[in-house]
Amino acid sequence: MTVEIGKQVADFTLPNQQGEDVSLSDFKGKKVVLYFYPKDMTPGCTTQACDFRDEHEKFGELNAVIIGVSPDPVESHQKFIDKHDLPFLLLADADHKLAEAFDVWKLKKNFGKEYYGIERSTFIIDETGKLQKEYRKVSVKGHVEEALNFIKENK
Fold this sequence. Notes:
Layout: E1 13-15, E2 21-23, E3 31-36, H1 43-61, E4 64-70, H2 74-84, E5 89-92, H3 97-101, E6 105-110, E7 113-118, E8 121-125, E9 131-135, H4 143-153
Helix pairs in contact: 1-4
């Protein structure tokens, strides 16, 4: 499975922060802002999550739900939500299969070390389950506003 703008996104199911299974198909009739981030509690990921939190109501007014995805375990997601009052779902992609399907599981370099991890990316899926927009290699600053504006302009 790979994702392509204008094409149906294959249904998937992952556990949320409470260990409950959540599927893309649960949100038919709503836009889904599916954002992949590297790790709970890290500075960039915390800023991004808090930006989505602060605009959560505006996304809701546009019939859009926000769902964060990282390889962190369920328990880590719950702590992240509790610490920062995040009002949206975080899904645990422990085996990074969903990240691979969206082609965001990448070889990275940091301080001379190579490792695989999430390339920060956001995907907007329309009410029928088709991919409407993708943002790859996302820079945190201003990104949430950019995604919100896209949804406003493409109701």
